[in-house]
Amino acid sequence: MPTLDDVARAAGVSKSTASRALSRPALVAPETVLRVRESAERLGFVPNRAATALARGRTGVVAVVVPTLENAFFTPIIGGAQRRAAESGLQLTVVVNALRHDADLEALTQLSAQVDGFLLTAPLGSESRTLAACQLKPTVLVDREIPGVSSVIADTATAFAAVARHFIRRGHRRIALVGGSNRSWQNEQRTEAVSAATRGLAELAILDPMPPTFAAGTEVAPAIADRDVTAVIPYATALALGIIFALGARGISVPDDMAITIERQVATALGLTTMPTIDVDGPELGRTAMSTLHDLMTRDTAETAARLRLPVPVLYPAGG
Amino acid sequence: MPTLDDVARAAGVSKSTASRALSRPALVAPETVLRVRESAERLGFVPNRAATALARGRTGVVAVVVPTLENAFFTPIIGGAQRRAAESGLQLTVVVNALRHDADLEALTQLSAQVDGFLLTAPLGSESRTLAACQLKPTVLVDREIPGVSSVIADTATAFAAVARHFIRRGHRRIALVGGSNRSWQNEQRTEAVSAATRGLAELAILDPMPPTFAAGTEVAPAIADRDVTAVIPYATALALGIIFALGARGISVPDDMAITIERQVATALGLTTMPTIDVDGPELGRTAMSTLHDLMTRDTAETAARLRLPVPVLYPAGG
DNA sequence: ACCGGTTGCGCAACCGGTTGCGGTGACAGT
DNA sequence: ACTGTCACCGCAACCGGTTGCGCAACCGGT
């Protein structure tokens, strides 16, 4: 592996000039910059990240912490974050904390020595512990808000409320909401939003917290059937699919006997053209979060925390 | 952040002794080791990875390259690999190459300066280019075999063949195989295995390559119906679900009118107790691959490449 | 008391970039 | 010709661990 010294020698300049030519070209004569770049190119020079990290005191790595990889909700976020990180020359390390919300702080403290920033997606820990973790390094929260910390959330609460209102307009008077972990901030937001939207207009059955899996959907389906509701709002796609399947097995047909809301793309595939659909843009969420984090890391002045709320579009069936 | 110097001072030893006490304790008097460890603990010392990497010439980071995160097949692998990596004190960086099989080599060359090893999952590139990439750093292939390179694969080919034989025993004479990208090594293996298993016993309809999505399943379903087959072997769970849905919409019921094989857990959730199921252990696949890679990285002698083939259990319905 | 062999530790060089500071030469202004 | 400015560049120190080498103390054996 060629080093900066080799490049410098080849270009006939000192190591320091070579360094500046490559990383801060404004400080070097244009013609020299060209020579250095050409040598670097020719030798196939790739700067050693460890050395750069050591000298600069920054690693160029950001950690993305996800509760689990089994929920398909998180992977698009990771993908979007990774693309955005690559654009800024940042590496991305993925950490799965297996929903152990209470072990976050120690692990993150260890990690904080190795990375420049954190992207915490849907952290479940208590507000105080999470806040402590956020103070280790520049941090952006995804799908959770904590006062004083930058965050980016997909506004599914508003979308769910809109769906609930749509169902009410369509005459539904008993609606079920199937949520996730009750330690989840988003889940709380959604429950409140839907409760507010239905209050006085329809009865809302809030079912037990369910993991976002197909199996969980089949498991909760009987409860839905028993509650005698006519519309369901499940919080995750796989869960929704499980529900549709299991209801079908009990002779309850979607959409004929039961209304449901589901991710746009899946609805199209299923031919569920009469149901309202929502459309969370996971990659965009990840990209925005990473972008915000990058700002946070480069900006020296610790200005006020950004609180972004990405709208989640709701599409109503053509019939209005 | 406390440095090794601080720890050494606190323990009343030199920096070099402190370093050895922490990383090669056999070289230091036991009582000294204790003192150093105690000081490190008390100060909350966390070794600076960049410095270690620079001094040792190894980064302690391995890259996991996946074609995409949208296929639920890969995420459990990443999870398993991450857990195993953490056990060995390795960080894991996830790289998504967006199926651009021809851009692998350049990107990996860049990356190779920053990591100690590669886990290439299901690389689609040509054998020669992939082989070139494998020579940059210790590499373990997942779900692809190339002579001379260590690899770990889930033996779905054998499992699929077993399923095909099961279908034949049950009297099926027209079977459809729905595969993925025809650039995929695994896909090729599976196609061959199933072809061999059915040869002379049943007609095999090999359908067009499909992405592993629900939507693709609904798309390919008409072709399945038209081919007049009685059993389907789809290569991905989401795809299978899409097929079941869409067949159902056309009045073809699974399992009454059509046999299908599907992932164990989903089959249970669906109540498909009469269908053979397969059970790929993604986390185990990732863990084994990372384990193999770790061996490769620590072993100095470049011995013969490991070629692991994890069996994929097939469970037949209770009725035999 | 002398000696070869351990054992335990410190000195200082090194990994490969980055950057503060000082030196050099060109050029304009008087 | 003399000096002040400024753009450009090199020297060397530094980031924080790791490790080869050498020194000192201590061991049992003759």
State the domain count of chain A. Answer: 3
In oligomeric terms, what are we looking at? homodimer
Strand order of the largest sheet of chain A: 2-1-3-4-5-12
Radius of gyration of chain A: 25 Å
Helix percent band of chain A: 40-55%
For the biggest sheet of chain A, the summary is:
6 strands, parallel
Name the CATH superfamily assignment of the largest domain in chain A.
Answer: Response regulator
Distance between the termini of chain A: 64 Å
Order of helices and strands of chain A: HHHHEHEHEHEEHEHEHEHEEHEHEE
What's the rounded overall pLDDT mean of chain A? 89
Are there runs of chain A of 5+ residues with pLDDT below 50, and where? none
Percent of residues in β-strands of chain A: 15-25%
Q: What is the correct CATH architecture of the largest domain in chain A?
A: 3-Layer(aba) Sandwich
Largest chain interface and its two residue counts?
A: A-B, 49 and 47 residues
Please tally the β strands of chain A and state the result: 13
Shape of chain A: elongated
What's the tally of helices of chain A? 13
Stated plainly, the CATH topology of the largest domain in chain A is called: Rossmann fold
* Broad structural category of chain A: alpha/beta
Q: Using the coordinates above, name the CATH class of the largest domain in chain A.
A: Alpha Beta
